[in-house]
Amino acid sequence: MCRTANSLQTWFSAEWERLIAVKARDEEEERLGRLFNTLMVISSWISVLLSIVFLLMQPLGFLPPLISWFAAAFPIAVIPISIFCLVQARRGHIRPMIRLYVWSNLVAIGAAAWTFDGLVSPAWVLYFWTVTIGGILLTPATALWMTGGVLAFYLLMLLLSQAGLYTPLLVPGAAGREYVHMSLVLIMLALTVGMLTYLNMRSLQQALWTLRERTRQLMTAQDELVRKEKLAVLGQVAGSVGHELRNPLGVMSNAVYYLKTVLGDADQGTKDYLNIIESEIANSERIVSDLLDSVRTKPPQIQQVVIAELIGQTLGKLTIPPVVQVKLDIPETLPPLRVDPLQMQQVFRNLITNGIEAMQDGGTLAIRAMTDTSAGTVSVGVQDSGAGVTREQLGKLFQPLFTTKARGIGLGLVVVKNLTEANGGRVEVQSEPGKGSVFRVILPAAE
């Protein structure tokens, strides 16, 4: 038995390491592909600038027409292979295309140096760019091999020249050679410095983005940990406290019912006090229910529910103050929901109650619903025109025991979040101080 357990543990460890290695390799390939795209764009600009420089040499009197046109056509001829490598790299063949581009560039530059002025050819400057790309995109060893190949090629040309076996086909002369050489040096220097600056800035931006993302994830994990710790503490006391409170509340509710029955001819003051007691008992029972629901969520009994009926039933169980105006915008064409109707009634009852309590001096409570056919969801927004909450309070609204009310224990929105997520939905909130808040419940629609 122990041997089987050890084998399973070893297998799981190996599979886990393999998955990590595959993920790291995929991320590296993606990074390499983006870098290759960038360098291909810069390489194309180098080819275009070189052609422009060579074309300007004839009217300036530095090169004969034949040499000028030949030199201008040579960089343009390299662009098709760059485009081919770029297209194939985007199809997933990144490293083979990088090798093809680098080594084809070496061969092309070698042919240019062999044809155009030999040992003193300005084309030798172009090797800096190709070797730099090889070192960045591939490995330092590749750059060393390329450098060795360039030196060997130069020594071969030197030996052949000394033996009288090699003479360049095109010789621009001293003035043309100096002009071409300086032009190539300036172009390569400017674009190489620009490339390195871009890569460094991009690397810095990625590092800052990664740092911000890790910080955000850490803060989210910390908030979730605090939330779970509070829920754990509540869970330890909710069961016993809820049981101990519900019994006396039930006794008091029965006593009020009895008093109303036997005191049917009592004066209005007595009846008012009995109604106040009954109302406070109901509020206490709601707090106990929220306390229990915040730490335990029963599995939802999923049904098809018409959203207009759900909202109507919820509003029918609430007392809306005369100073609050309720506006409904629920199209009849909305698809039904797949939710537990009792749980979602509790969700909307809590949100509507919060909106009413946020407008002590009156205002408008707007309930709007809309569908997202692509996501297969229905969004129901409950918007009030109250005081709103600050940005700091916004991030704590769904934490247990956090409340912005003078009288509240901070469990209503916890229940909203738990029940909504149990029904396959999510809750979003937007608020601005002085302009009110909108809580948006997004739920799955029936097919």
UniProtKB/TrEMBL annotation:
<dbReference type="Pfam" id="PF00512">
    <property type="entry name" value="HisKA"/>
</dbReference>
<feature type="domain" description="Histidine kinase">
    <location>
        <begin position="240"/>
        <end position="447"/>
    </location>
</feature>
<keyword id="KW-0067">ATP-binding</keyword>
<keyword id="KW-0547">Nucleotide-binding</keyword>
<feature type="transmembrane region" description="Helical">
    <location>
        <begin position="35"/>
        <end position="57"/>
    </location>
</feature>
<keyword id="KW-1133">Transmembrane helix</keyword>
<feature type="transmembrane region" description="Helical">
    <location>
        <begin position="69"/>
        <end position="88"/>
    </location>
</feature>
<dbReference type="InterPro" id="IPR003594">
    <property type="entry name" value="HATPase_dom"/>
</dbReference>
<keyword id="KW-0597">Phosphoprotein</keyword>
<dbReference type="GO" id="GO:0000155">
    <property type="term" value="F:phosphorelay sensor kinase activity"/>
</dbReference>
<keyword id="KW-0808">Transferase</keyword>
<keyword id="KW-0418">Kinase</keyword>
<feature type="transmembrane region" description="Helical">
    <location>
        <begin position="153"/>
        <end position="173"/>
    </location>
</feature>
<dbReference type="InterPro" id="IPR004358">
    <property type="entry name" value="Sig_transdc_His_kin-like_C"/>
</dbReference>
<dbReference type="GO" id="GO:0005524">
    <property type="term" value="F:ATP binding"/>
</dbReference>
<dbReference type="InterPro" id="IPR036097">
    <property type="entry name" value="HisK_dim/P_sf"/>
</dbReference>
<dbReference type="InterPro" id="IPR005467">
    <property type="entry name" value="His_kinase_dom"/>
</dbReference>
<dbReference type="InterPro" id="IPR003661">
    <property type="entry name" value="HisK_dim/P_dom"/>
</dbReference>
<keyword id="KW-0902">Two-component regulatory system</keyword>
<feature type="transmembrane region" description="Helical">
    <location>
        <begin position="179"/>
        <end position="199"/>
    </location>
</feature>
<dbReference type="InterPro" id="IPR036890">
    <property type="entry name" value="HATPase_C_sf"/>
</dbReference>
<feature type="transmembrane region" description="Helical">
    <location>
        <begin position="100"/>
        <end position="120"/>
    </location>
</feature>
<keyword id="KW-0812">Transmembrane</keyword>
<dbReference type="Pfam" id="PF02518">
    <property type="entry name" value="HATPase_c"/>
</dbReference>
<protein>
    <recommendedName>
        <fullName>histidine kinase</fullName>
        <ecNumber>2.7.13.3</ecNumber>
    </recommendedName>
</protein>
<keyword id="KW-0472">Membrane</keyword>
<feature type="transmembrane region" description="Helical">
    <location>
        <begin position="126"/>
        <end position="146"/>
    </location>
</feature>
